[in-house]
């Protein structure tokens, strides 16, 4: 798969996963700290893994890695720069 396609898929998956996690935690998506996709998948399975509504964490992680690559799955997102305040 082309790197540009992997990147596009990664952006879309991250948005979907962050949205799901934020809804579960009943917070705004913007309130989530910077998390790797592996962290997000782990948290979702920690919170919902016993309901049998999800596949296995390993299977989901493996499928995501096939789509976006190992590096993108494990990389920590860069925190957004904080705008300086003027006093």
For this entry, give a set of tags:
single chain; mainly alpha; 4 helices; 0% strand
What order do the SSEs take from the amino end to the carboxyl end, as H and E?
A: HHHH
Mean pLDDT across every amino acid position: 86
Q: What is the first-to-last residue Cα distance?
A: 50 Å
Overall geometry comes to flat
Number of strands: 0
Oligomer state of the chains in this structure: single chain
Low-confidence stretches: none
Which structural class do you get from the secondary structure elements? mainly alpha
Protein architecture, described:
The protein is mostly helical. The protein has one domain (3-74). The chain is 60% helix and 0% strand. It contains 4 helices and no strands. The longest helix has 23 residues, at 3-25. The relative contact order is 0.17.
